[in-house]
């Protein structure tokens, strides 16, 4: 059973640095303390168990400042469990969140699969599930109260196919994808867009996670799949609908063999230090898709980056921005007087329909069927990632 | 109704206050709610659970089967890969090994299916633990699939050792998936069992609840029945009974008003209606009773006030009721009649006949319902009764015979008098008519007899015969005058006389007339008893009455003549036809003679009726009296009883004029002569010739005409003046009066003498001559004619 902690606005900045045991103990104490009869402040459940995102500190800081300005107190509740993601853990985490008094919305989970697994829990409890970065188009139909902020895999697939066609002049593509909802979804999105553009799919193959790419024994499976796939033909570019590890490993494997081969990574390949380290110099041959990037020059992004660097001590990842937008979206709903789950649901459902989209740092957030999504392309150059024009 | 303040009575009061429609709606609503609640309980308690169990089982089974099928497929794929690894078949060019490619596509498909997360709605029914196990199994299957694909890639690349290692890894992952799948299966079964237990528990709870619910329904049913009974059946039954009572005529029927609903209002309306009907009926009954009482009073008033006797008799002839008038008619008090036999009022000798006729009349065997009969009463008195009978029937009572009885004895008597009077008039007219013609004949006989006697020598033996003819003719003339007197057709010379004086003048003559055996007593009035009569005629009346009295007293007696003034009133006049109330002079002649029976009295004034021996009376004496008195405007009555004498009462209208002196007696010397021209008009040829001859013998020039027309022609043709017109009044075609008028117009100074044997004509009205008219009644002698002609010509 997962334990929980109550994140007070003045505590949020330090939560990320607490160990699990301490945080759990604090959570139990706070939960016991919360058993009084005082009104419970609207609380946002944060469903990230695999890691403790640093953006929580930024969010709590923002909420604290807002409360100091006279805004309503808003709690943040993040169940703390083992860092590994597991089906049981995701479901258990969702159940913990919905059982939390005052919870008016949940932000998470980390991926499309986990969000989909947890969706029934939230649907049963009537808790709106705001998914920051899940792209599976099935998130839009999995339940009535699941709201996905990120563009779905159709939009991302079309973006990737467009980048391949326009920027890389590629006519043929091979797709490697994770054997999960994300990978298959993005694969389908890309294949559909390729068909619309008349591009050729050379091969497609699922790949597994490779914890250590530098170890030949551990990467043997991945390497065999990639090598066997390329025996079907060498495409103009390879689309990697995989996470950071496999993406970096595939780029590192193929770059020496096919120097002209270009790679386009999906949003699960995060342009962070780990990617650069795993891919090595071959990373320069890769383009990546993100929903937000620290290089975005608008004031909101710059302020977010500044605050994030100050509070967390590193560069914010796109995932951080998406989580920030998701949590601040719920906070905005609460500030507008929606203190119950149903009110927050109605608020979210009205975005882009009967009320204007929420302006997040990743762009306008809307849940209308015809919403316009913002996608950015990054390139690795000189050991860092930079925004790259689509054309 | 006693008010109840306790809270428990509030619902009852509330229900009582409900309208009928509200009650019906309440019943329907309660019933609907009852049924709906039961249905809702079952539907909400067991239905969703049953459906959820079914859906859950279906979804659990579907999810499990899906992963189980994938597991089988993956096992098959592992077997296939293992076979390829075992064969270590040389890898061929990509796309050349179709089996390998097919296997790879198959495994990729398994990957796709394994990674698909079922929809929330599908997962909702799957227990969370199973959902986790299934998800883990699917994830493991995806790993197995990817590992198999990597193995196949190694096979394609000919890396058999690595392939073997990877295949073992796939096997191991497959085992893990098996374990997860088994766990999911176990969890699913456990969940189904748990849900089934819950469903069973719910079903038992539902059964229990249904039982309780049915019990509640059973408890509600009597309440509903009681409500229906009280609100519907009982008021309806009360109304039904009240209507039945009303229909049977019981206007006192009322319906208790127990509620203020429609039935209560209906009951109020009914009670109001019956009250109105009762009130109106009582009012009508009261009015009817009053009307009956008034009618009965009127009937009794009419019954008692009726001048006609009334009698109700039953079928047996017993008198039920009589009125006072009948008591007066019968001469017995009411007590002697009512309750007694009908025959008690009559002569016992005719009881059987009366009773028999009554029974026949009661049975309708006698059709005459109005009749007159002469009866002899219980006291022997005979009276005439006019009886009208009719059946008197009233509901609930035996029929009675109503007899309306009127004593018409007096009317009978008056009718007899009238009839007698009418008979006398008829006889008078007959006598008058006979006298007219007879006078013409007598006139001729007298004229010729006188002419013949004048032509004979006095000692001529025929002269006596002629004298006898003249005597007989004069007697015949007297007879006709008596007839005319009776017929009130003789000429009267009216004069105001005092009857006292007239009786005094006749006293000596009357005493001589009655003889010495009869005592004449005259009772004159001290007051003048003036009447306007023909004294000669009235003397004749008195003489005739005295003679009649004398003859009634052959052995002597007393004869009383009484004269006095009397005033006849209405009462007297009512019982006597033709009598006018007013002042009269009574001349009563009474005798103590033999008297007369009623039969004789009824005929005493008829001409030629006499009780005297043959040859002793003409039978015209009293008839003449009657005629003279009637012609004078008076009345003559006789009162007589056999053996007790008779009284004749003559009533003459009293005159207020002064007594007039008698006219000088006409000179009876030799008949005067003359030389004037006389136009004689007479339709009787023999008389015309006799008259013309006698006038010529007296020196006159006579022009004769048989008719008026002829007289006019004679007068026109005669060139010389005509001095006198002697004309019969009664002429065919043109009467004497008209002839005289025409000739006067053409002959100025013409004098006229009318002659007639009949007084009731154009110049004589009721025996009274018009002023200025010269008249000579037939028969007349030539001398009388000559004297009258001379007087007219001289006048």
Description:
- The complex is a heterodimer of chains A (391) and B (795).
- In chain A, β12 (358-360) and β13 form a beta hairpin.
- In chain A, the strands form three sheets. A seven-stranded mixed β-sheet of chain A has the order 8-7-9-10-11-14-15, with helices on both faces. In chain A, strands 1-3-2-4-5-6 form a six-stranded mixed β-sheet, with helices on both faces. Chain A has a two-stranded antiparallel ribbon with strand order 12-13.
- With 391 residues, chain A is α/β, with parallel strands linked by helices.
- Chain A has helices at residues 12-15, 20-33, 55-68, 87-99, 112-125, 153-167, 181-197, 220-230, 244-257, 273-279, 299-312, 318-335, 341-350, and strands at 6-7, 43-47, 75-77, 103-108, 129-131, 146-148, 172-178, 200-207, 237-241, 262-265, 286-290, 358-360, 363-365, 376-381, 384-388.
- In chain A, α3 (55-68) packs parallel to α12 (318-335), α8 crosses α9 (244-257) and α9 runs parallel beside α10.
- Chain A is built from 13 helices and 15 strands.
- Chain B is of the alpha/beta class.
- Chain B has helices at residues 9-16, 20-45, 47-87, 98-115, 120-124, 128-157, 160-247, 262-305, 324-330, 351-363, 409-455, 461-486, 499-514, 535-552, 570-574, 598-603, 621-631, 685-697, 708-717, 736-746, 782-794; strands at 309-313, 319-322, 370-376, 382-392, 400-407, 495-498, 518-523, 530-533, 557-568, 582-591, 635-640, 646-653, 677-681, 701-705, 724-728, 751-756, 764-765, 768-769, 775-777.
- In chain B, strands 2-1-5-4-3 form a five-stranded antiparallel β-sheet. A five-stranded mixed β-sheet of chain B has the order 7-9-10-12-11. In chain B, strands 14-13-15-16-19 form a five-stranded parallel β-sheet, sandwiched between helices.
- In chain B, α18 (685-697) links the parallel β13 and β14 (701-705).
- Chain B is rod-shaped, with a radius of gyration of 74 Å.
- Classes of the chains: A alpha/beta (391), B alpha/beta (795).
- Chain A binds chain B through residues 86-88, 91, 95, 113, 116-117, 119-121, 123-124, 138, 141-143, 146, 179-181, 183-184, 204-208, 220-222, 224-225, 227-229, 231-233, and chain B through 93-95, 108, 111-112, 114-117, 119-121, 123-124, 128, 131-132, 135-136, 139, 142-143, 145-147, 149-154, 156-157, 159, 162, 166.
